[in-house]
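User: quick one, fold this
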Amino acid sequence: MSHLLARNHRKAGILATMLGEVSPRSAEMSDSHQGSCLCGAVRFRTRGALRGVVYCHCSQCRKQSGHFYAATNVADADIVVEGAESITWYEASAFARRGFCKACGSVLFWKPRAQDYISVMAGAFDKPTGLKGDCHIFVGDKGDYYSIDDGLPQFEKSTPSIAVAE
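Assistant:
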């Protein structure tokens, strides 16, 4: 088992973290958060600072979740996932894929292919999260049954700092 963990420790990216790797950098950080899917088949732990919550109103996020996404980001090296065999990945576009629990259907992750981070749904974290809303993206695609009136910045598509599918 230790040889498997050592080999996983040398791997980079989300595959290694989903197999239980904790990078030396993340092991030294004090900020830690954890969460899970509804049934508990998938659990995760993060280390380090989390980005503010971005609310995505694009049609893909709305159709998958039934409303809109609320997600933060964590570096691939700073997340450990237990129960990765219970995650189903849906190739939503050539840009990113979406991970959800194959047992209970909980939406958990959004992973862009060419980036070294993963978005984690804010609602999947156990409390207290300390998370705060940051902005709304793809407001031009938002559902017609609600309004956005929380005072956060709103963007028709995205911001230069948030990579999204075109």
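User: anything notable?
Assistant: Residues 135 and 153 are 5 Å apart (CA to CA).
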